[in-house]
Design brief:
This protein has 9 helices and 5 strands; from the N terminus they run E-H-E-H-H-H-E-H-E-H-H-H-E-H. It is an alpha/beta fold and 180 residues long. The chain has a single domain, classed as Rossmann fold, CATH 3.40.50.300. The chain has a 5-stranded parallel sheet, with helices on both faces. Helix 1 crosses helix 9 and helix 4 runs parallel beside helix 5. The chain is globular and about 40 Å long. The relative contact order is 0.22. The structure holds adenosine monophosphate. The site of adenosine monophosphate (AMP) has 15 residues, from helix 2 and helix 3.
Length: 180
Amino acid sequence: MKILFLGPPGAGKGTQAVRVAQELGLAHVSTGDMFRALDSDSDLGRRVASIMESGELVPDEIVIEMLERRISEDDAANGYILDGFPRTRPQAEALDAFLGDDGLDRVVVLEADADELVGRILARGRADDTEEAVRTRLAVYDRDTEPLIAFYEPRDVVDRLSGVGGIEEITESILTVLRG
Ligand code: AMP
């Protein structure tokens, strides 16, 4: 099973992706985690870190290559949850080309309103969570990533769920949808 989690920054995507992946025995594939794990002394690591701090997106070519390599690893053979990729139309098209006929099974969209999002992001206090970067990330989501919901909609794989509420309760609602 190949599942994509979509949603604005702060909607709880990462938290839920980890929990659902564990529950379903799928690999959790987070491009953000992969970037944060890069060697900060390498050229690529430095370049990516400064982009992440600004809240902008890492160039598509870099992300796509990294993601394709990651989902080719053994632990992804049984399926995976994509968390944070694709974030742009070119990334979504590259993923389609890479997967061919064996495309995404489900797209789970976690929704929350803007006030909830900003409050949550500032509360988690990650290094790339300065107020300006947060504002940029929300704008980038609206501009580049939110349109992917409409891109996947015609395939009848999209489920929209509220990301507001208790962590366990939301995990259960996602599992119910995926098992249904
Ligand atoms: P995340 O942990 O998913 O919130 O990602 C943190 C940051 O990593 C983002 O704000 C981007 O700068 C970068 N990033 C993660 N995934 C992608 C992606 N698919 N495309 C471009 N940049 C990404």
